[in-house]
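Progress against Task 2.4 (sequence-to-structure conversion) is shown through the following example record, which the project officer requested during the mid-term review.
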Amino acid sequence: MLLTTADTKPLYSPAITIEQGAIQYQQDTQPVLSGLNMQMPAQSWTCILGRSGCGKTTLLRYLANLLADKVQWSGELSTSNQIALKGQVAYMAQQDLLMPWLNVLDNVLLSEKFSKKTLRSPSKVQQYEKAIALLTEVGLADKTQELPQNLSGGMRQRVALARTLMQDKPVVLMDEPFSALDAVTRYKLQNLAHRLLKNKTVLLITHDPLEAIRLADQLYILHGKPAFASALSLPKQQTPRELNAESAALQQRVIQRLEQDYE
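Structure tokens generated for the chain above:
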């Protein structure tokens, strides 16, 4: 996918490569992650599984440039478009983080209020039209004036997804955005996110093996202490995959692998 930037350089959804990566919090005596080798293909979904506390969110937050003053990094982090990852990233957290005093439309437009303005920046009318179009895409065109507290959990996450898409970044980092939803709503939102994030480079953190198996083009498990990444082979079905005997067998292997870290 090709996007345009203020400096007129083309910005493609890039592949991301980590070689021998290590992350250590400033106050800790040993790293959270070490010997990390990962390939995140361009315009594809990479999913990461692992036990609680193994460093999944730490990695995601580091890639989102949210830990710059809190951790030490070593290793190589590169993108195939040779542009620094900072500035290419949209981040969608587990909580929807909607502002309770803003209506749905203004929550979607919130990122635009803090973005750097240039001569090429869209006008307020263009921003409004884009936000309305995105809310239509996520099925909330009739909820633009509602406050977040009047929405269901699934609706709130759809607003958060629209806000993420509003940023139009080539890389999208997602930290368990569907984990608090019921099974049917989660399934529907997985499909919706997969469709709307087509051609983005997506990194999804999840605790749910089935979610990872459904969505992943590349799948890693973080394990060990400090944690490192192991890649798993995936069924050749097109994503989002339908659940069948092959995916059920893979889910069992994933659970067995994860259980090893709890022994």
